[in-house]
Structures are given as C-alpha cells and as structure tokens.
C-alpha cells in the first residue's frame, strides 16, 4: 500500500514523505522487495529503490523532481515481490512547474487558464450561504443566476489538476466583494456570482473567501499557486461598480466604509459617477467612455477620489502578490486614464496587464484598440483572432480567415506576441455549443497554443463541457465544472503544448509564417532565430490532403510528431534546400494535427521580449530570450548601459536608465560578447497622472477632428500628426465649441500644449499658440483654455 495515493511536487523540490506499508495478509511473514516502475527520468527517490520491507512493516520515502522533468501526471507503480508472490500499488505523481520566485513581466511563455471561480470547485462549504448576503446560493445548481459554491479554496484544492495540465497562470473572475443583495432586474433575481458587480474593491467576496471578507483565502491560493509555478491574474473592472437599477444601486464601499453613492452623488464637477444614458452606439467614443454600460453604474475615473480608489485597489492586489490583471471592458473606461492606470501599476512593481476590447477586425474601433494597446502597453485579448478561430472551427470556415487575421494583427501591433488569445470565454457560447465536435476543440486548442500570443483556455474546455440551452449563451457557458479527468485528449494537448511553449522559444517569441493552406489545411511555422515549430492540421471530417510543395526553416532530417500521435500526427522528412527546405510530400488524414519542432542552442543573445514595453527611468523591466549567458553582460538602452538587477541565460531584469524620454532600441549583450537583435522600448518622461484638457473654440466645421499636442513625449513631442498627438478630442455634450480629452501626462512636469484641427479634407489648422500648465505631482488634473 502507498499513502497518500497522489503527490504534487514542483520542479526542483521534494515531496512530503509517502508511506509504503506491507500488510501481513493471510499469515504472510516474509520480506518484500519493492521496486519502482514509471518513474520519469530526473526524478530521484530517497531512499533509493528497490527497498526491502518486511511484512507488517512500513517505510517512508520521498521523491525529488528535477528541474528538467516535464510538467504533467505520471503513474508510478510500486511493485512488491517476495518469491513467487507479487503485489502492486500505484501513486499519481504530478510534476508542477518550478516555484514562482518573483514577479513576471514576460508572460509569453505562460498558458493561462480562465476560471469563473463560483463555477469551478467548492473547497469550503462554510462560505456557501454567508450571513451578510444570505439567500444567494443554490445548492441544486439549477438557478443559473445564483452562487453555486465554487470558491478560492476550491481552486487551491485543484492545484494538481491545473499543474498536471501544464497551466502556468490562472485568470480568476473578479474576487472582490460584490453586492450583498439580489438585484431584481425586470422581474428576475440576480446574484453576482460572476464577480462583476463590485461593492468593495478593497476586500474579498465572502462567497469566495470568508465571512469577514479577509484576504486569507486569496493569499492562500496565491501561495499554493506560486509553489507550483502558477501565476495568479485578477480580473479587475474599473469601468463600473454594480447595477444602478437594483441590488445596491451602484453604491461602493472602501474596506466596509461607505465610499460612493450613485443615488446621492455630488453634483459635477465633484461627481464620482457619470449619470448618462445607456450606451447604444458601441462605435461612438464618447458614449463608450462616458455613457452607461448596460445598467452598470459608470465610474468617473477623472475624479480624484475614484482615481485613487481604483489605483489603490490594484496596488493592494499587487501587495497580495497578484501577478497580473485582466482589465475588464477597456474600451468603456476613459482611455487616457487607463494609460495612467497601467503606469501606476508598473510604477508600483513588475506586473502584466491585458484587457478586454471587445470588437472584430473590421469594426470602427479596431484602429483605436491598436493605438490604445501600442501606446499604453496594455496587451489586448485577441478578439479578432477568436472570432476567426470560431468561424473556422465551429462554422467550418476557411483557414484563410485565421491566416489573414494573424497577418493583419502582426502588422498593426507593436508586440503581437503579447496578444492574449482565446477561443472560448465566459461571455460567448462555447465552441461545442456551436458545433458539437470534440475534434474541433482539440484542433482549435492545438492551433491556439502554437499560435503567437499568450493562450487562455476557458475552464472546462478540456473536459468538453457545454450546455446548449439558449445557444449556449451566458449564463449557460458558465456551467459547473463536473469532471477533473486528466485523460481527455484536450487535457493532454494542453499539457504537451504548454510544455513545448516552455521548451521551444519559437512559440513565445517567434514570428509567424503560413507555409501551406487551403480551406481545410493550415500549416503554420513559428520561428525565433534557430528555434522552429511547425504545426500542420487538417480539419476536414473526411478528406485526406496531399501536402506537396511544403517548405520549412527546419533543418534537413526526419521529424516525428511532438504530440506522439495524440491527434493522428505523423513524421516528415525535410530535405536540403539552402534554408528554405522542401518537405517530402505526405498525406495528411482527416482530423489530424501534427507538430514538428527543433530548438537550436543559441550561440549569441537572442532577445524575444521586453516587459513592460514602456516605462520611465528608475523602473525595472525584464528582457526575455535565450543565449544571454550565465554571467552578467550588458543591457543597452540605445547606447546607454542600464543597471542590471538579475541575469540568467533566458531572463534579465534591468533598471531603465536616466536617458531623455523617447523611443529606443534595447539590446542585450553577452558578457564580453555579441549583442542581441534589438527590440523597441519607450522611455517615458516620468510617472503619469490623468489630466483632462478642455478647449473652448468657435464651433467647428462638421467633420473636423481636434487633437492635443505638447512638448512631452506623452503628447507627441509637439508633432502635429494624428499618430503622435492625442485625440481626437470629444465634444462636451450639446456643444461643438467645447472639446475635451483625458490624457496621461508626466506628474509634476511643466508642459506646453497646443491644439490642431484636421479638417474634413485632411488639411491641418494649427492653433498657433501654446498654453503652459504645471501638471500636479499626484492625483488627477484638469485644465481649460480657449483656442
Ligand atoms: C465584460 C465581462 O467579461 C463580462 O462578463 C461583464 O459582465 C462585463 N464586462 C461587465 O463587467
């Protein structure tokens, strides 16, 4: 017998003792020799096996998992023999990632698992029906608008399941305290099980933690996750509080004390909320930022108290060791303010930020989303690619749709490898509700995990979870996690591709190139210098395709399927071709996914990532890549050497030096050796605060846009072009003679700013004068001038 029956051990650490006992059944009295089978290489035991244990006796042993052991689940069998008698006992060893020792800024090697906490696992039944918010729990799990019992302790208890899947980060639904009473909206009662109806951003929801709203359960989850190489990302909604038409009517608290009342809000300009109609035009920037999203009380981020409340909440999560944030409803929050939120987070410490800008690639706000992400450094959830993936895998669309989306986004985004990819989410029907074909889920996951961008897997996709009521729309996509099986194909695809993302930098840092395509077949190559991954798939239900004329950057040789045939993959033969090497023609059967790869040792530094991509002097940034060498070399910001804080072969942290604000190339130079390829970096003027700039002007000709420029980098260094200036400004409602915009500018800086118009024919009219303004050293600012 072995007890316990399963152990979770991080790379580089040793298990708690497991006890082997030999029962003296049927009068057996001899000594048993116990051997081991199925132990992965680089796992050692203490004491070493075989062991001799006499009947009725027991022996404890520990397992040490080396740093090179692939994350995953291993069945280890203890085989006892004595003469002709034998008996077996097995142990499930889950090897998780090495413990997280510091904050991450480079998430490109991560695989994120998205959890709707209430629907995942009930780890603590004492918080199911808490006294301050009774009657919101449905034990039968039939009322989809009630809490069902999942909690932070539940996620913690499933750590082995997550680690065995190869997951390296979890994105949890907002864990903050939500409204305590049901919101009765149009005759239906709603509980905030999803977490998006905050009442207090400074403490933890009692259904997810404990009745005192303490941070204990959150802290425990972070500790357990970090021990197993898993980072914790918090979903954070800065746009709004909770419904203004039911429940707690938008009210917000600060650590239990009243903070903001939507119903009794001070009059402008001291209002903490906007009181505008519901957004009806999702292409209108004014409506998006200042109107009400559905019925959610819309926060006025330009108010100093709201600004500090929201930024304080982010900082508090960082103090509780949250590793990153998923920012809710990005396009609905004041855009300029969000730049300052990102800067406040980066100024507080290393973190990773990505957010939700819900739109398709042809939507009018797509260019805004590109500009927003490139200039703020906040990565975006890749909605355009998700829509393309869903068309291809659920609606049997043509692979060109995916390929075109990748090409366009690669062209538009400064750092396409930071886009956060997904196929399913808690806001849209699951793929299986659109097309009940598990092969398609496996194929979509394999492609997503090979694709550029940081992949997010929605909880339950690996169990093929779906409920198709009402087309599988919310809330039926947020169903109860009914199984934690580790043997599904999807679970294993995720595991293997997540391990490949750690092992072969082409996935995290590489470029993308389509190598072969038709409507059913896609062969995509990822390449980071001499690291290469080639993935080929055929999604047809019936047709095999002859793949001839395929070329690759893989060196000549034979390559077997990295997935070991999990989805029917096969070997290929690459022939010599001077670098663009021909692959011997082969046939790709229906529903096949094959992955071929090679990772070449770096002979000089290869820079794959900078995080953040923009920061002021004095902040710490991380350079990721390979071949940096084991002893410290140099990080050059332009030509200026940065102080190095830590150095390893694949990751270097450095302090942004005091150089003039501007756009720089960063290179990493090995100790006494070669310099890497450059990556772009922006040195900001200083820490940033939001300032509302208002200009009064004679009524503008219809179709004219107004922009703000100024003598700091953040305002485009006085260049009067629409790509470097800030804008277009928004009209104060009811006028076209008073215009404003909220911009993120360097705190404490004396600045000069000016405006210019772009007339409908494209010609530019400059204000011809400039205004002086001393940006406050903290909080928020506002300045109003006349043109
Ligand atoms: C987008 C979230 O993903 C969604 O679930 C939520 O209801 C809205 N934002 C409002 O917070």
Helix/strand layout:
Elements: E1 2-3, E2 6-10, E3 13-14, E4 18-21, E5 31-37, E6 43-46, E7 51-54, E8 58-65, E9 72-82, E10 85-96, E11 112-115, H1 152-157, H2 159-164, E12 169-172, E13 176-178, E14 183-185, E15 188-190, E16 198-204, H3 216-227, E17 231-236, E18 240-243, E19 252-254, E20 257-260, E21 273-274, H4 285-290, E22 296-299, H5 304-319, E23 324-327, H6 335-348, E24 352-355, H7 366-376, E25 379-380, H8 383-393, H9 399-412, E26 420-421, H10 431-434, H11 438-450, E27 454-458, H12 489-503, H13 505-509, E28 511-517, E29 521-528, E30 531-538, E31 545-547, E32 551-552, E33 557-559, E34 572-574, E35 581-582, E36 586-588, E37 592-599, E38 606-611, E39 614-616, E40 620-626, E41 634-637, E42 640-647, E43 651-655, E44 662-669, E45 679-684, E46 688-696, E47 705-710, E48 730-731, E49 738-746, E50 750-758, E51 764-766, E52 771-774, E53 781-786
Parallel strand pairs: 2-10, 11-12, 11-27, 12-17, 17-23, 23-24, 24-25, 26-27, 39-45, 46-53
Antiparallel strand pairs: 1-4, 3-8, 4-8, 5-7, 5-9, 6-8, 9-10, 13-16, 14-15, 18-22, 19-20, 21-22, 28-29, 29-30, 30-37, 31-36, 32-35, 33-34, 38-40, 40-43, 41-42, 41-44, 42-43, 44-45, 46-49, 47-50, 48-49, 50-51, 50-52
Helix pairs in contact: 5-6, 8-9, 11-12
The structure holds 1-deoxynojirimycin.
């Amino acid at each position: 017998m072995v007890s316990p029956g399963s152990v979770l051990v991080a790379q580089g650490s040793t298990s708690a003792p497991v006890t082997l006992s030999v029962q003296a059944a049927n009068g057996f009295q001899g000594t048993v020799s116990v051997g081991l089978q199925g132990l992965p290489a680089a796992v050692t035991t203490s004491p070493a096996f075989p062991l001799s244990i006499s009947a009725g006796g027991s022996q404890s042993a520990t397992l040490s998992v080396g740093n090179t052991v692939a994350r995953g689940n291993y069945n280890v069998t203890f085989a006892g023999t004595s003469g002709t008698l034998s008996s077996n006992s097995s142990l499930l060893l889950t090897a998780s990632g090495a413990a997280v020792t510091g904050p991450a800024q480079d998430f490109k090697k991560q695989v994120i698992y998205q959890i709707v906490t209430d629907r995942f696992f009930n780890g603590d039944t004492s918080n199911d029906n808490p006294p301050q918010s009774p009657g919101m729990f449905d034990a039968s799990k039939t009322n989809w608008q009630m809490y069902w019992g999942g909690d932070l302790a539940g996620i913690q208890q499933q750590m082995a399941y997550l680690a065995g899947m190869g997951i390296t980060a979890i994105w949890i639904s907002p864990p903050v305290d939500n409204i305590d009473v049901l919101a009765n909206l149009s005759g239906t009662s709603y509980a905030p099980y999803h977490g998006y109806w905050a009442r207090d951003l400074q403490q933890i929801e009692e259904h997810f933690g404990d009745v005192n709203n303490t941070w204990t359960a959150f802290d425990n989850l972070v500790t357990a996750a970090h021990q197993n190489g898993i980072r914790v990302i918090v979903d954070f909604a800065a746009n709004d509080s909770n419904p203004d038409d039911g429940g707690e009517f938008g009210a917000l608290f600060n650590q239990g004390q009243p903070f903001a009342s939507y119903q009794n809000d001070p009059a402008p300009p001291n209002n903490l909320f906007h009181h505008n109609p519901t957004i009806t035009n999702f292409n209108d920037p004014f409506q998006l930022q200042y109107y009400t999203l559905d019925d959610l009380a819309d926060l006025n981020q330009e108010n100093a108290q709201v600004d500090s409340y929201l930024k304080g909440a982010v900082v508090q999560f960082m103090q509780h060791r949250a590793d990153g944030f998923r920012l809710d409803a990005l396009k609905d929050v004041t855009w300029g303010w969000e730049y300052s939120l990102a800067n406040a987070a980066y100024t507080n410490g290393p973190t990773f930020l990505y957010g939700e800008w819900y739109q398709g690639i042809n939507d009018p706000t797509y260019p805004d989303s590109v500009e927003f992400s490139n200039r703020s450094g906040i990565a975006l959830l890749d909605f355009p690619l998700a829509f393309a993936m869903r068309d291809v895998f659920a609606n049997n669309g043509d692979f060109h749709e995916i390929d075109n989306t990748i090409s366009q986004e690669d062209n538009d985004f400064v750092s396409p490898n930071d886009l956060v990819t997904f196929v399913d989410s808690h806001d849209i029907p699951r793929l299986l509700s659109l097309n009940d074909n598990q092969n398609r889920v496996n194929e979509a996951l394999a492609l997503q995990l090979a694709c550029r961008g940081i992949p997010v897997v929605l909880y339950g996709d690996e169990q093929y979870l779906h409920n198709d009521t009402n087309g599988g729309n919310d809330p039926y996509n947020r169903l109860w996690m009914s199984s934690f099986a580790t043997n599904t194909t999807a679970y294993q695809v995720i595991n293997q591709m997540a391990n490949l993302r750690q092992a072969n930098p082409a996935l995290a840092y590489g470029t993308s190139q389509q190598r072969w395509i038709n409507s059913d077949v896609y062969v995509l190559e990822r390449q980071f210098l001499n690291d290469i991954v080639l993935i080929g798939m055929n999604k047809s239900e019936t047709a095999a395709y002859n793949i001839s004329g395929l070329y690759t950057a893989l060196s000549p040789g034979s390559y077997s399927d990295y997935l070991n045939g999990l989805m029917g993959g096969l070997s290929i033969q690459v022939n010599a071709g001077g670098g663009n090497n021909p692959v011997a023609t082969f046939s790709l059967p229906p529903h096949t996914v094959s992955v071929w790869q090679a990772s070449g040792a770096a002979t000089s530094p290869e820079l794959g990532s900078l995080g953040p991509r923009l920061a002021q002097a004095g902040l710490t940034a991380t350079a990721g890549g390979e071949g940096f060498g084991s002893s410290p070399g140099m990080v050059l910001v332009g030509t200026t050497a940065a102080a190095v804080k830590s150095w390893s072969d694949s990751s270097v942290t450095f302090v942004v030096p005091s150089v003039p604000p501007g756009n720089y190339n960063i290179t990493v130079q090995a100790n006494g050796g070669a310099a890497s390829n450059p990556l772009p970096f922006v040195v900001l003027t200083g820490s940033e605060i939001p300032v509302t700039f208002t200009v009064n002007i004679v009524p503008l000709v219809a179709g004219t846009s107004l922009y703000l420029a100024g003598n700091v980098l953040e305002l485009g260094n006085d260049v009067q072009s629409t790509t470097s200036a800030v804008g277009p400004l928004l009209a104060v409602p009811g006028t076209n003679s008073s215009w404003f915009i909220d911009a993120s500018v360097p705190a404490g800086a004396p600045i000069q700013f000016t405006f210019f118009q772009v007339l409908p024919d494209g010609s530019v009219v400059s204000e011809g004068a400039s205004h002086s303004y001393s940006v406050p050293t903290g909080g928020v600012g506002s300045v109003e001038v006349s043109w």
